[in-house]
Amino acid sequence: MIVRRITRRALLALVLPSLVAALVIATDLAPRAAAAERQILEIATRSGVHVFSVELARTDAERARGLMYRRSLPEGEGMLFDFERDAPVSMWMRNTYVSLDMIFITSDGRILRIAEGTEPLSERTIPSGGPVRAVLEVVAGTARRLGIAPGDRVGHPMFGGR
Structure pTM? Predict the structure, then answer.
């Protein structure tokens, strides 16, 4: 009988790829569990009403994590950050791999400003440009594609509608 001794290096070479794959999958899926509450949000534009399924980020921890570590964001989905009252806010793209459109919304549901095509992984701050209650993050290009503009109305219970 031949007994072959496996060195640590050979064992690591066998196991490491599986561990890395498991970590990548867990990192991509973990944020979805952290912000599980989903709601419908509508934006009324000149081109019509556009419906999104959004995750809510209401706590400090949920807002801090946001869409970090996500490798993709499907069309028609997003994350709605609730800051509870109108105030100037700043966002960033730290550990966020997907380019986003950030839609800054006042407490009456009006879009104040849109930051289009944000730079992934950037730590540059993106200011609201005035007091806002919430920020909606959607995949980059959504605002331009759907004709979403400052002044458009957002329908969601947070803003007293739908």
Answer: 0.78
